[in-house]
Specification:
This protein is mostly helical. 77% of the residues lie in helices and 0% in strands.
Length: 111
């Protein structure tokens, strides 16, 4: 009886991880697009979302830090994607360059 209540837990947890794993690369770009350029607008957004009032002088230095953080996290996403492609051996655009012809001819000879 105890096994029935926990039987579906692993499946739903996998779905949540897959959902957040797929959405994670979008987050840095979305933050960059939605980040206001005006320091007063940024202060208003911070105050509305968190309840913390920031002076405009502080938001002038906070915005570049947020841009740098988004750029770094975006580059981390790219590095992880390239590393996973290398580990799996998948090439998203096929083989390119002089080695492409050699690979194709070797496959044709093997067939």
């Amino acid at each position: 009886m105890a096994g029935q209540c926990c039987a579906g837990e692993g499946r739903s947890l996998r779905r949540v991880r897959r959902f957040f794993g797929a959405g994670a690369p979008v987050l840095p770009g979305a933050v960059l697009v939605l980040l206001p350029k005006c320091p007063l607008c940024l202060a208003a957004w911070v105050a509305a979302c968190t309840g913390i009032a920031l002076p405009a002088a502080v938001t002038v230095s906070v915005r570049p830090a947020l841009v740098i953080a988004c750029a770094l996290s975006g580059s981390l996403v790219v590095v992880r994607a390239v590393a996973s492609l290398r580990l799996t051996g998948a090439m998203p655009f096929g083989r390119v360059g002089p080695a492409a012809g050699a690979v194709r001819s070797a496959r044709q000879r093997a067939s």
